[in-house]
Amino acid sequence: MPEMWEITGEYVVIKALENGVTIIGLTRGKDTRFHHSEKLDKGEIMIAQFTEHTSAIKIRGKVELLTKHGPIRTDD
């Protein structure tokens, strides 16, 4: 498999509990910048991965987040 296709980070599963959830990927490096955003509606699921380019994921809205550390749910 070519090097560019190797898995470089862990995955998280994000399930929207309401319409209009915003997910924003933030870059690594000297300056943290937004590099990608998505909108999810209630019931939609996104699988995200931390990579050599993504150091953080910002989530706005009510979600259930599944990680290797266990489930996390935003406060009601």
From TrEMBL:
<dbReference type="GO" id="GO:0003723">
    <property type="term" value="F:RNA binding"/>
</dbReference>
<keyword id="KW-0804">Transcription</keyword>
<dbReference type="InterPro" id="IPR016031">
    <property type="entry name" value="Trp_RNA-bd_attenuator-like_dom"/>
</dbReference>
<protein>
    <recommendedName>
        <fullName>Transcription attenuation protein MtrB</fullName>
    </recommendedName>
</protein>
<dbReference type="InterPro" id="IPR000824">
    <property type="entry name" value="MtrB"/>
</dbReference>
<keyword id="KW-0805">Transcription regulation</keyword>
<dbReference type="GO" id="GO:0006353">
    <property type="term" value="P:DNA-templated transcription termination"/>
</dbReference>
<comment type="similarity">
    <text>Belongs to the MtrB family.</text>
</comment>
<dbReference type="Pfam" id="PF02081">
    <property type="entry name" value="TrpBP"/>
</dbReference>
<dbReference type="InterPro" id="IPR023558">
    <property type="entry name" value="Trp_RNA-bd_attenuator_dom"/>
</dbReference>
<dbReference type="GO" id="GO:0006355">
    <property type="term" value="P:regulation of DNA-templated transcription"/>
</dbReference>
<feature type="domain" description="Tryptophan RNA-binding attenuator protein">
    <location>
        <begin position="9"/>
        <end position="75"/>
    </location>
</feature>
<comment type="subunit">
    <text>Oligomer of 11 identical subunits arranged in doughnut-like structure.</text>
</comment>
<keyword id="KW-0694">RNA-binding</keyword>
